[in-house]
## 1
Amino acid sequence: MKCRRCRAKAVIKIERHHSAFCKACFNEHILKQVERAVKKDGMFDRDDPVLVAVSGGKDSLALWDVLLNLGHRATGLHVALGIGGYSDASREKTERFASARGAKLIVHHLRESLGVGVPEIAEKSSRPPCSACGTIKRYSFNQIARQYGFSVLATGHNLDDEAARLLGNVLHWQEEYLDKQFAVLQAARDPVNGRGGLVKKVKPLYRLAEREMAAYAVMNRIDYIVEECPNAKGAKILVYKEALNRLEEEAPGTKQNFYLSILKRWIPRLKPDSGVEENWQSCRQCGQPTSTNAGAGCR
Ligand code: AMP
Ligand code: FES
């Protein structure tokens, strides 16, 4: 197997693009794909400071690495969720990466800011831990981005994450979540009082598969947390990912076609104003966005 670009020995095959790459050309391919998404989808400009949400996992650390390699002013944000040893290990990975790259990292400790971690929040709100965790993460990302004056926040969601989430939303016909599937979610002011609001959110890896990001991280010796969150056991999203991987094996490109086609053709027909998050208001106490009249932090 030869590299499509330079004819050297290839180290990775990408079936859906009918291509194979050596390490140097694969790195170039990943950088180009991210740069293309950033530019073509209007995510941010070359000089815009970007806040990158880094969990300690392969996708977000690889994204941070790629953005730094492309010359972007990318600061990391890690939310320490207070899920025992798993959270400590995740935070350490982000801190080590930041010091190795000489990059700025903001660590936000939930136990310091709210006095509790995800397990206690889930218990108090009687919600499954992953659902409470998702809400608190979105809340923290927005709060810290606004506090430090960032106008754009990037996450490491990849093609597999988005396709699996879309499959779940379509199977259960959760129309209200389709808006969040876009690679760019524009900044929005509070629909009622025009104050505060949501910072712009972007997913620069939306065209790249999980397998490609894992390969990038390994090839570039990025030390990431391999362990899954203890609360992820039995999560439906993993079943959807498995099902899509099976389809992808039979017909390479299925995942990408499914996600990109629905994104481009179907959602805009259903929701002509899509690309802006809906159904939210500002919390009466802290001003942060919320779907009820009190934000996740105040509840
Ligand atoms: P997940 O919600 O775990 O699928 O992660 C999706 C994306 O959210 C990751 O790629 C990161 O960009 C971001 N993220 C998840 N957990 C954290 C965290 N604890 N701190 C900062 N960013 C995170
Ligand atoms: Fe949030 Fe697992 S990372 S519950």
## 2
Amino acid sequence: MFRGVRTIDWRDGRVVIIDQTLLPAELRTLELTSVDDLVEAIARLAVRGAPALGAAGALGVVIAVDQADREGWDDERLAGELARVRAARPTAVNLSWGIDRAASRLAQGRQAVLQEALAVLDEDVAANRSIGERGADLLDELFARSSTATQAIRVHTHCNTGSLATVELGTALGVVRALHQRRRLGRVYVDETRPLLQGSRLTAWELDRLGIDYRVVVDGAGPTVIARGLVDAVVVGADRVAANGDVVNKVGTYPLALACARAGVPFVVAAPESTMDEATPTGSGVEIETRADAEIVEWSGVRVAPAGARALNLAFDVTPADLVTAIVTEDRVIRPSELAGG
Ligand code: MRU
């Protein structure tokens, strides 16, 4: 059975993560033992990707409980520190979801909190295994009656949705991996995913390790690659899916969905149930993280825009439900056009 890299884990009272800021040059782990460590790692994207953030949130409650014990925090202080973790990145609903899951066991004590957090990690691995297979089944089905039925399916993907974005296995990239294992996968296109290059740094690193044929394209080329007929399906992940099926994901997702609609190419989203946010009616109600100007106006610490140039660094965008062919979770395939109001 396929095992991905373990992106986040609990070992000897510490949260152990792969420091994703160093990839692909270096595969190094980091140990986190305090709320400050965790908040910093989340904010600078050392750990990232919605499901991995869910795991970080859940394990973060254990870290906070241990720190409260060491430093004598009262309940109010503990709640304040958990709020700080929650606020470290606001868009992916999984972070709050993971914190809520583990914090729901606070009254039963530290061991119960740890058990719940570890269950979040185990469930993520199992959910991703189902998403990969269900997503590959869906693509097989979508192309069953077309000429692609006997050909390899060429996929475009965005950002990083693989092992590195989850506990171990990946969502959208898990679908790509499942197609590859079934010998149904053609070339994969992945865009760079400016400004932090999750596509060219992380997804390309994972595709390399999987032995999958791929090309990296610049973000602006994605719609053209689709329009030129080089792509049979776009498969992406999500940071939050609103009740009406609007999909919030890494900025640059929306242009791909528009290009798919124009070209008649399926636009498929793969995400766990923990990313479904029934409490938020539409995508317009989701806070979109705005990050530092420096990520855009500088390149590796060197200024590339004129001195004084300001940026608008929106980290995510909203793809309206009517542009989404299907959302694949571990439990179901949702067709947003069939949702109320979709
Ligand atoms: O800013 P990031 O790298 O955390 O953004 C990640 C994404 O947008 C992913 O597509 C999403 O979290 C799904 S990961 C399985």
